[in-house]
Design goal:
Pfam families: ABC_tran. GO terms for molecular function: ATP binding; ATP hydrolysis activity. It contains 13 helices and 13 strands. By secondary structure, the protein is α/β, with parallel strands linked by helices. The structure holds adenosine-5'-triphosphate (ATP).
């Protein structure tokens, strides 16, 4: 369990965190999201005592991180995967870390196997790819078999197989009753991994809720209607007080009326329908609308391109662009 209580962190004039409070609970994967500069890494550094809060407090399993006698056994942390002695092998790095906590070769070999590093374990870390470095960072976090895991951008640099591996690992660890706290830029990734999501924007908590709740809110109220009698149906719908936009000669997007009612109205007037599709909102849309005022660095042209698509389902390409905007 991680308990943050009114955490504030200032760097000179800059307020990186502004009265941030939340709980990260055991048995769940909690995603920590926010645009660049939102304060995610700062929060994680404060949790593990790498930085000191200007005010407020944060504890892990009831104590400040530094008060734990064997922190590796209590909290596993991946903050900066590159912060490793580059001349050492992965095996020696893990062994040296373990030595501070009486953790021996057996456990080192276990985490190497768990993270798929067997074939490179004896190679110098300096030659590792970003993905291998991430796996080593995760291995180090798991070394002490801790009850709480804090992983900053764990999928960064991993290939699709690696991303799925982190997802399954996080879910497995939470199922074992551990507290799993993962940061990411990507709502789409988090939605597939996390049970609960905390979103930061410019140093403040702007959402702290279950993925289910966010998904429910993301459901758009739009309906796509394809009909050869678009003009007639538009007339019927607008006189019922509904918003209709034509996206092609035979294609309408309707807001403010459920699909069932649109179908009934059309049937009553003898209007032929070729398609009647409720439009699901996407999680990326929900995230974008949450954070739209909170992004420090925004590509305004890309942002403008998305301004009109708030209820349209996001195609893979546009989802990728959305992620770029959030970065
Ligand atoms: N050591 C520091 N000195 C001054 N400002 C800092 C320092 N560390 C962070 N900041 C500022 O604090 C804010 C929060 O930064 P932080 O790195 O925590 O955000 P983040 O959400 O992790 O972003 P990213 O996703 O880009 O890693 C930013 O405005 C950043 O510029």
């Amino acid at each position: 369990m991680i308990h943050a209580d009114n955490l504030t962190k200032r760097y000179g004039e800059r307020t990186a965190l502004d009265h941030v409070s939340f709980d990260v609970k055991p048995g769940l994967v909690t995603g920590f999201l926010g645009p660049n500069g939102a304060g995610k890494s700062t929060t994680m550094r404060l949790i593990v005592g790498l930085d000191r809060a200007t005010s407020g407090d944060v504890t892990v399993n009831g104590k400040h991180y530094s008060e734990h006698r064997a922190p590796l056994r209590e909290v596993g942390v991946l903050l900066d995967a590159k912060a490793v002695h580059r001349g050492r092998s992965a095996y020696d790095h893990l062994l040296a870390m373990g030595a501070t906590h009486g953790i021996g070769k057996k456990r080192v070999q276990e985490v190497i196997a768990l993270t798929g590093l067997e074939t490179v374990a004896k190679k110098r870390v300096g030659g590792f790819s970003l993905g291998m470095g991430q796996r080593l960072g995760i291995a180090a976090a798991l070394l002490g078999d801790p009850a709480t895991l804090i992983l900053d951008e764990p999928v960064n640099g991993l290939d699709p197989e690696g991303v799925v591996w982190v997802r399954n690992l996080a879910r497995h660890l939470a199922k074992e009753g551990r507290t799993v706290f993962l940061s990411s830029h990507l709502m789409s990734e988090m939605a597939q991994t996390a049970d609960h999501i905390i979103v930061l924007g410019r140093g403040r908590v702007i959402a702290d809720e279950s993925v289910e709740t966010i998904l429910a809110r993301a459901q758009g109220d739009g309906v796509r209607v394809r009909t050869p009698q678009a003009g007639q149906l538009t007339g019927l719908l607008t006189s019922a007080g509904v918003t209709v936009t034509g996206t092609a000669a035979d294609l309408l997007e309707v807001h403010g009326m459920p699909s069932s009612r649109i179908g009934e109205l059309a049937a009553g007037a003898g209007v032929v329908l070729h398609e009647l599709t409720p439009l699901a909102g996407s999680l990326e849309d929900a995230y974008m609308s949450l954070t739209q005022d909170e992004v420090e660095y925004r590509d305004t042209s890309a942002a403008a391109a998305f301004a009109g698509g708030a209820t349209a389902p996001v195609a893979p390409e546009s989802a990728r662009q959305t992620e770029e905007v959030a970065r």
